[in-house]
Specification:
Structural class: mainly alpha
Number of helices: 5
Strand content: under 5%
Shape: elongated
Radius of gyration: 25 Å
Helix content: 55-70%
């Protein structure tokens, strides 16, 4: 251990004895360590700024809206309202699929009303 590291360690131990670390924010809670190893190094700062500003990329925002709309759909009892909601969901899915530059095999699939009505009918029994 170098002389600088020894001095730092001593200062930290002295501060601990004086209780200078006792009332820090998050005391006693686990650290939130974010793994950003899969993000290119030159984009990490930009991603961190966007995350701290609570901004989502458009693709993730659309996926979030679609999932929320699907959750709302499960609690609807009126068939006409369900049909309207399915049309809204399918529109969002179309927007999402148009945003991405990925294989058609990885695209989100739209909801078909007949299949949904059958499935919801089976759940009620």
């Amino acid at each position: 251990m170098s002389i600088i590291q020894k001095i730092v360690e001593e200062k930290i131990k002295e501060a601990q004895k004086r209780g200078e670390f006792d009332n820090l924010p998050g005391h006693g809670k686990p650290l939130k360590i974010e793994d950003d190893s899969n993000i290119p190094e030159d984009l990490r700062l930009a991603y961190k700024i966007l995350k701290n500003a609570d901004c989502l990329p458009p693709e993730l925002q659309l996926k979030k809206e679609i999932r929320q709309m699907e959750d709302m759909l499960e609690n609807m009892s009126d068939e006409k309202e369900k049909y309207r909601q399915i049309k809204r969901i399918n529109y969002k899915i179309m927007q999402l699929n148009m945003l991405g530059k990925k294989s058609p095999l990885l695209e989100e699939h739209q909801i078909y009303y007949g299949k949904l009505a059958d499935r919801l009918g089976q759940k009620k029994k």
